[in-house]
Amino acid sequence: MEYVIGCDVGSQGTKVALLSLDGTLAGEASASYAIDCPHPLWAEQPPSRWTDALAIAIGRLLVTAGVKSTQVRGLGLATQVDGVVPIDARGRPLRPAIIWMDRRASKQCAVAREVMHDIHALQITGLNLDASHVAPKIRWIAQNQPDIYERAALFLLPGSYLAYYLTGEVAVDYSNASSTLLMDVRSRSWSPEMCKLFGIEVERLAPIVAASTPLGTLRPAVAQMLGLRPETLVVVGCGDEHAACLGAGVIRPGLAGDIAGTAEPVCAVSQQPIVDPSGLIETHCHADPGLWLLENPGFVSGGNLRWYRDTFLGGSTYAMMDDQAARIVPGAEGMIFLPCLMGAMAPTWNEAARGVFFGFTLAHTRDHFTRAILEGSAYALRDITDRMRALGLQLDELRVVGGGARSQLWNQIKADVTGLLVTVPHTTETTALGAALLPLVGGAYTTLAEACDHVVRIRDQYEPRPTAQTAYTALYQLYRHVYFSLLPTFNEAASIARYSEIREL
Predict the structure, then answer these.
(1) Is the pTM of this model over 0.85?
(2) In 391-429, where does DSSP find H-type helix?
(3) pLDDT value for 498
């Protein structure tokens, strides 16, 4: 029996999945790591953290599955998007990666707006002029660490860095490139206009190809570290939410993917690029090169729940928290949570927004707070699905994947809040599964759609409950009123914080 391995290199850990050539999931393993936050709203990771975790996870996978290296034919990557890794001419990282949740480059975006209007950038790239993307992060390096900028031969994304680390070849796929603020989403090529705006030479960016493109075989030293053969084929790979959609079978119009992890990207399939003038929804390329994903790249969601558990509920498991929150009636007796602990991505993009618990009294317990966090993420999810429908997208089914998909309570809340049928695939960690599908194309399967149809199976489904849906409709409007009422206060608080930083210096 021969296999391929899919590698999900995420924000807090790496998960790997072993898939047989006939589409059977034969094993899974993982290794975790930390995010460094040296300053407020900064987030970094040394690339060695990813490569070490990859070796650990693949080693565990081979042992637990009882598979020999000679049985592994190929390897596919799915990686966190919106990070940047500058490397020198010898391929060595020059600094820790600035990852997706980092907000340090807001000034670089403000300067770009003085030259180019947000709408014009949106029309070219399908993206907002936002600090989460790669282009302003590269400009931040140029202005704050000019020695590193000058020494950088290439500015790679996490996915293209790992592909280079594995094979020595340089490439990036359409999905990852479409989230940089440097790609023309219509032509699917690097945009000279956007590169000029941020002062980045196209020659310092990786060539763009399809996600299932064979890139090369493993470097001998890397193969030894991973416990695989040097002949193991590596394909270019795609972004993590794009692979998650593949692993969930979200590859046709009418389907949307809800990747409930640290962040919660929400993606719907489109047959053409559609630009959202409000900016709530961005336009990305799908892992399938013939499709696009209309997507909100992800408000912090599971990360909020983990922060709450680790900070206030020492010793509690997520299952215990679910059981306790299930005792509370829908709406948490009037408590509203705004899931903006790292800024807002819904109902608007707003880096000044902060997390808020609203409406709690002496009668509220910690279980109310837990339920309010789950409901707050569901309200943000509805912000996105409502906007997708307003743009003309057909939405019939929401497929929930990732760690959050294990929560039956959360899945039911999402069905009740959005009014959509919520389904959960048999395999919820679909990012690694989606990555494993990529090296099968051109061999076991002709297309990604064929691979998805063969492999993906639905395990559970949740219908909206009319009574709860009615209650949540009013509470959802209250959530929006709380958010928009606080916008002036968020901006005032941000100004005070900036003044305090200046005084501290």
Answers:
(1) yes
(2) 408-418
(3) 66
